[in-house]
Specification:
The complex is a heterodimer. By secondary structure, chain A is mostly beta strands. Chain A has no helices and eleven strands. In chain B, strands 2, 4, 5, 9, 10 and 11 form a six-stranded mixed β-sheet that branches. Chain B is built from no helices and eleven strands. Classes of the chains: A mainly beta, B mainly beta. At the A-B interface, strand 5 and strand 10 of A face strand 5 and strand 10 of B.
Chain lengths: ~110, ~110
């Protein structure tokens, strides 16, 4: 069991470039989440997917889009990267929604120049 | 005011010490509470869930006071390997999901 995997591990973008962060889980979990973590701010929820076929905005959705491709995969897209999106991005999954334990991927460190 | 607030830290303690972390949450609709541990440059991992009756896992004890909207974590007999950041979490359903505190850094020294 790999748990939650994320690609890439590191990425450097120029302002205005686009990219997609990939996330997959092999635990047959229903819910998946994307967070960003900035110093002193803690983890903040960007988007979540309560179940396959549904997505909802979290606390900081502006500048991002998501796709729940199937039960296993949940991708996060930056259409036009900005320096304010420099952060560490974590994907997570849980079986029974947000009140259940969440399992995190190893994270993607993104720098936008 | 942040929805989940934690002691700012860092806490610097010697091996064998007992250390307590506090956390308050503002949303009374919160239903589930957790402590996660995060090592430097790693992902958060569940340390323990927090129940109203209090719960213990080895050297770790978590308490929840719903009336005061307060969560605590007690670590007894600290080990070097306990050095990490501890994240307090409150979550619910409907429009309110999961809110993480900013974390409290712990350094345990020999």
């Amino acid at each position: 069991n790999a748990g939650v995997t994320q690609t890439p591990k590191f990425q450097v973008l120029k302002t205005g470039q686009s990219m997609t962060l990939q996330c997959a889980q092999d635990m047959n979990h229903n819910s998946m989440y994307w967070y960003r973590q900035d110093p002193g701010m803690g983890l903040r929820l960007i988007y979540y997917s309560a179940s396959e076929g549904t997505t909802d905005k979290g606390e900081v959705p502006n500048g991002y889009n998501v796709s729940r491709l199937n039960k296993r995969e949940f991708s996060l897209r930056l259409e036009s990267a900005a320096p304010s999106q420099t952060s560490v991005y974590f994907c997570a999954s849980s079986d029974r929604g947000s009140t259940d334990t969440q399992y995190f991927g190893p994270g993607t460190r993104l720098t936008v120049l | 005011r942040k929805e989940v607030e934690q002691d700012p830290g860092p806490f610097n303690v010697p091996e064998g010490a007992t250390v307590a972390f506090n956390c308050t949450y503002s949303n009374s609709a919160s239903q589930s509470f957790f402590w996660y541990r995060q090592d430097c440059r790693k992902e958060p991992k569940l340390l323990m869930s927090v129940y109203s009756s209090g719960n213990e896992d080895g050297r770790f004890t978590a308490q929840l006071n719903r009336a005061s909207q307060y969560i605590s974590l007690l670590i007894r007999d600290s080990k070097l390997s306990d050095s990490a950041t501890y994240l307090c979490v409150a979550s619910g359903t409907g429009g309110f999901k999961t809110i993480f505190g900013a974390g409290t850094r712990l350094f345990v020294k020999a």
